[in-house]
Known about the structure:
- The complex is a heterotetramer of chains A (209), B (360), C (623) and D (111).
- Chain A has 209 residues and is an all-alpha fold.
- Chain A has helices spanning 21-51, 63-66, 69-94, 98-130, 138-168, 178-208.
- Chain A has a single domain (17-54, 62-207), classed as Cytochrome c oxidase, subunit III, four-helix bundle (Four Helix Bundle (Hemerythrin (Met), subunit A), Up-down Bundle), CATH 1.20.120.
- Chain A is built from six helices and no strands.
- In chain B, strand 1 and strand 2 form a beta hairpin.
- Chain B folds into two domains: 28-66 and 88-121 and 130-235, Sandwich (Immunoglobulin-like); 261-354, Sandwich (Immunoglobulin-like), CATH 2.60.40.420.
- With 360 residues, chain B is α+β, with helices and mostly antiparallel strands.
- The radius of gyration of chain B is 26 Å and the shape is elongated.
- In chain B, 39% of the residues lie in helices and 17% in strands.
- In chain B, the strands form two sheets. Chain B has a five-stranded mixed sheet with strand order 3-2-1-5-8. Chain B has a five-stranded mixed sheet with strand order 4-10-9-6-7.
- Chain B has helices at residues 2-23, 38-71, 87-115, 205-210, 239-251, 261-273, 315-323, 325-328, 343-354; strands at residues 133-140, 143-148, 153-156, 158-162, 166-173, 178-182, 186-191, 197-202, 214-219, 232-237.
- Chain B contains nine helices and ten strands.
- Chain C folds into two domains: 23-553 and 602-614, Cytochrome C Oxidase, Chain A; 554-601.
- Chain C has 20 helices and two strands.
- Chain C has a two-stranded antiparallel ribbon with strand order 1-2.
- The longest helix of chain C is centred in the N-terminal third of the chain and has 35 residues, at 62-96.
- The chains are: A mainly alpha (209), B alpha+beta (360), C mainly alpha (623), D mainly alpha (111).
- Chains in contact: A-C, A-D, B-C, C-D.
- At the A-C interface, helix 1 and helix 5 of A face helix 6, helix 7 and helix 19 of C.
- Residues 139, 178, 219, 221-223, 227, 230 of chain B line the site of dinuclear copper ion (CUA).
- One heme-A sits between chains C (137, 251, 254-255, 297-298, 316, 319-320, 323-324, 327, 356, 359-360, 362-363, 365-366, 371, 374-375, 380, 383-384, 387-388, 391-392) and B (57, 61, 97, 100-101).
Amino acid sequence: MHAEEKMTYEKWPAAPEKQTLEAKNKFLGFWFFLGGETVLFASLFATYLALKDRVPSADHALAKDLFEMPLVFLMTMILLTSSLTSVYAMYHMKNFDFKKMQLWLGITVLLGFAFLGLEIYEFNHYVHEFHHTFTSSAFSSAFYTLVGFHGAHVTFGLAWIIALMVRNARRGLDLYNAPKFYVASLYWHFIDVVWVFIFTVVYLMGMVG
Amino acid sequence: MAMKWLSKWRLLSLFTMLAFVLSGCGLPHLSTLQPAGEVAQTQYDLMVLSTAIMVGVIVVVTVIFLIVLFRFRRKDDKIPKQVEGSHKLEIIWTVIPILLLLVLAVPTVKATFDLADVEAMDQKNEEGKTDALVVNVRANLYWWEFEYPNEEIVTSQELVVPTDEKVYFNLKASDVKHSFWIPAVGGKMDTNTDNVNKFWLEFDSAAADEAGELFYGKCAELCGPSHALMDFKVKTLPRDEFDQWVADMQDVKEPAVAQTPKAQQGQEIFNNSCIGCHAVTPANTTPEAARMAPNLTNFGERDYVAGLITMENNEENIKEWLRDPEKYKPANKMTGTYGELSEDELDALAEYLLGLKVQE
Amino acid sequence: MSTYAQKRGFGATLWDYLTTVDHKKIAILYFIAGGFFFVLGGIEAMIIRIQLAIPNNDFVSAGFYNEILTMHGTTMIFLAAMPLLFGFMNAIMPLQIGARDVAFPFVNALGFWLFFFGGTFLNLSWFLGGAPDAGWTSYASLSLASEGHGIDFYVLGLQISGFGTLMGGINFLVTIINMRAPGMTYMRMPLFTWTTFVASSLILFAFPPLTVSIFMLMFDRLFGSNFFVTAAGGNTIIWEHFFWIFGHPEVYILILPAFGIFSEIIPVFARKRLFGYSSMVFATVLIGFLGFMVWAHHMFTVGLGPIANAIFAVATMAIAVPTGIKIFNWLFTAWGGSVSFTTPMHYALAFIPSFLMGGVTGVMLAVAAADYQYHDTYFVVAHFHYVIVGGVVFAVLGGLQFYWPKMFGTMLNETLGKITFWLFFAGFHLTFFIQHFLGLWGMPRRIYTFLPGQGYELSNLVSTIGALLMAVATVVLVINIIITVKKNERIGNDPWGDGRTLEWAIPSPAPFYNFKQLPLVRGLDPYWIEKMEGKKGMTPAEPLGDIHMPNSSIIPFIMSFGLFVSAFGVMYRLDYAWGLPVLIIGLVITFGSMLARSLKDDHGFHIHKEDLIDDDNEKGVKA
Amino acid sequence: MVNTQTNSGNPETDLKYRRKKNAEEMRHQVISFALMIVFTLIAFLAVGYEGFSAWFAVPFILVLAVVQVGFQLYYFMHMSHKGHEAPALFMYSGVLVAFLTIICFLTIIWW
Lengths: 209, 360, 623, 111
Ligand code: HEA
Ligand code: HEA
Ligand code: CUA
Ligand SMILES: [Cu+2]
């Protein structure tokens, strides 16, 4: 079975993301990449924890001064929901329903943008209200780097999903692009995994003090 | 004539050096193999123990290796038996190394804790001082400062300590990371920029005797171009002489007034160009940040200029140093900070500096 | 599509290599670049040794020495040893498991070009204001204080080449898991494949901490952050931990593939299967695992406290056990064998005592309390050159002689090979044995000169003479290579006569699709099994059919080039107005080519079975 | 590569069966999503509620985070399905290294 072959619902396999050798490789390689990303984010978390509230002088804002629950809660809900919507997209992918898959991916993208917008608002707020900038203290550097790396992942994920949607808009699903969609959705979930720890370790633990 | 003498002297030193190489233990004031105190002794014992184990391992492997090398050379074109392995052998060479490592691990852990025991530094008496002798070591780009917090004095480049008792150290760096090491007396400890490290050393009087009462100390962490030259010296004294030295130091309340006219001229220059960085009083009341250069209170009693063993402390070398410190310690922080000095001024400064003594 | 004509001009060959995605050609690229950097790092080593030959020498200045020293360590580890080993992995591993290619041929090429441009960028520092000078460890307080752009070159160059390494690692992992020939179970994989697997896993988990810490150093130096700025609440010990969380696994990333190479050489020339295969595999995995729990043994003197020091000391010692298992298994592989002393076998045998010496001094260093004495002295320098040169470099040199026929279809000269070996062997021990004593006599490492009268003169001179012998040996090797290429005498599938693994079952050099039909693997050492049963080659596991091949592509080159360009932008952003635009242009190139890659379908092409049948013993294919 | 899907011989029923399986799985996904939302709410409430001390709240919300991430990995990312042995092994190895790093940075960075 060649990957680029035109597909019909009847021919569509149960695990389209792992049908060809290329797809299997992509699938496995991407998981390994996520294993590496786990360590990458762990390193950033470790740095953040080591540098939390380390500021040059007493008038700098600390974690407990900065964070506000409602905003973080909203961001969390948005991102979590986007994880579910991307599961829906994959559900329709398995059922060979290209239109619905695109629709759910579209919703995922919108939620992603909403999250990103809030994050930008949040950072802006810290900078202007608290003079908590990237360069103001070790704490701020670690904070922006950790949360910013996550934000960069969100941005990259959005660009990736959009590129896939646009590229495949006309030709529909086949065994060549199914693994691409699948892997992109794995990436999106992983972003969510990281966020779960960010809201817990950075924001909630920051508010506890 | 002088040249000839010099070359003879060189030859002689070459021979003594060769002798040391042959004896394999290095110089008594510099070598970890000639331990001159409790810490170095502990470490030396560990070295001996571990070396013995390692030699044992090497012998076993070498014997097998040589047998392989000579007995199993290819002689014919036969195909040898394809052996899969041997559980018995596997167990042997798993268990024996584990046992050997246990033998090594136990004293390792014990020594690691012993050498880290600095409780005496926390036990303050009613004056808020410790009964134990404490020295605060501050490492700076290419020079060392030694502050005695209980005695409230500061000195540089040459650490002065009493023998046969534990001396405790607080270690830190003021610019980049360095590492404080007196090979013959004990292992090193880093001077970090982030925190104060603590450890202790003990200087053995008999070994100090053999080393000529002067140990070499080194910086053991790459810290810039002159890392290689960031040496210091350790003078050991019996306790009573040490107390005397402390008292003499404490006696200097004001900069000593130079005696000869030449030296007075030197002092004047010094007060104009140098005092901004170099103190000539030993009190530790100036804040650290303002102590930008070696304290010179007892400079005249030091053995070397800038801690360099090639620069014995005499008039010629002081002038050499002042002419162009860069030549002797690349990238040091003194170069270019005090303008040109004429030969005359150099003479005067040298005389003044050599006169800076606290003891008779 | 494919460009596989036999005779081509220089331009076409160059283009072929710039666009290749064939693992065997990428291997050659790794060898050329890695070999070049090895000579460069070697020349830097010679400068070090000449400077230290006599006391108070002024062959180089203090500042320049620190640059040389830093670049020697960095180049040797990141740009010579690792890429050379990657060369072997690319050249041999897919053949050993009976694969047509690696899992991601495109990514494979990308990995190489990233390494290449990263290394080039790093070395351009020599011409652009000075190289990094804070040691290969680049400890934060010093690397922040370092003036000029040296450290920026280090940070950006390693970042780029590090991405390449990471991709290579993932690629090998997937290849080994997914692309094994029928019958090639995990416990039938040759040891070199196993060590590639474990080393790749180490890469996967060790490089991210390096990436993060290098990013932080870059932000601190170029973007004003404060991770390591103590005055602003930062902490420099963070850097040290990250560096060694990466750095210790890194040394096993180097040594494990070397172990693998020796595990291939010894059975072939002892004509005996590897003794204790399964415990060899187990030991490899265990070394990889323990490798992540010992990093703080590089930081005993930092002041982590006795508890941490004791834990890390004991954990470090534990690694001696699996390594010992390996040493004895090698010895007992040769024991009872029929040992023929070819050049590769010279290296393999010399490796055992040499590495052993380095290994046991490693265990001595693990004695935390005694390490307070050894640390940052020439004792450590002696230790790690014993393991690295006696282990990794011997493996590279021996492996080169061993696999040369498989890669190029010709044999390196054995006599010249042995001359190289003996010169290198003698020079190596002469250089580094005496350094143990220098360390014990109180000579710190990383010093640009030493003062006379401390008893270091003679030993340093001896050490320098030894180093020169190694240089001569390297020159002989280069001559050998030139002669061999000139002569161009072709050889057959199994030139050593006793090949055991799959790679020896196919022509030398392997055709670009490797296996016309995937072989059926019936046990450990599959080729040997078939030979012992009197067969000439492997039994195929599939009927002859079309072979699917990937297309070549220039995109990996362009993508890496984009990062190379943007690195200049990042670095000069604050100095020149053109910095920012260049940074952006570079990123546009990279992300643009990434986009191009993902938008344009690439289904590869097929070699038709008719084209395969009639070229039974030829290398190429009419495309 | 050979088609590996299970085949009853009758493509019609096969597809129906698969559809049903997929729908069932999707229901599970929604349930795990609901649980994740609940966990998140509890975590936020635990922090917002003044009555809990940090000694209780911090470990508690960490446990919630770990459970939630388990859901993400095992359900949303299908790590519970077969064919994920190698990913699981490598994720766990990554977690181990991650854990060591974080423990280290929490204990021996500052004195
Ligand atoms: C290929 C590279 C390589 C390898 C394989 C090793 C292997 C080992 N290394 Fe080494 N090491 C380096 C490269 C390597 N090292 C480098 C580059 C540095 C310096 C970095 C820098 O600062 O710039 C360093 C530094 C270094 C230090 C820090 C020293 C210091 O700076 O103070 C320590 C301390 O524990 C150490 C220990 C070990 C140990 C225990 C092993 C073990 O794996 C060795 C195990 C092997 C054996 C022990 C031999 C065989 C075993 C037997 C025959 C069984 C019986 C043996 C016994 C019972 C002992 N190494
Ligand atoms: C893979 C790793 C590797 C390898 C192979 C080597 C190989 C060598 N190393 Fe290196 N070394 C390191 C890794 C390595 N080193 C590291 C990590 C450091 C620590 C750096 C730091 O502190 O930051 C170090 C430090 C280091 C020092 C300590 C410097 C100091 O602390 O001040 C010394 C000193 O002797 C040294 C010497 C040598 C020598 C003589 C070789 C020889 O084996 C080299 C042999 C190779 C050649 C001789 C090739 C040269 C070829 C020619 C000259 C051919 C002629 C040219 C043409 C034909 C064009 N090395
Ligand atoms: Cu100070 Cu080296
Ligand atoms: Cu190590």
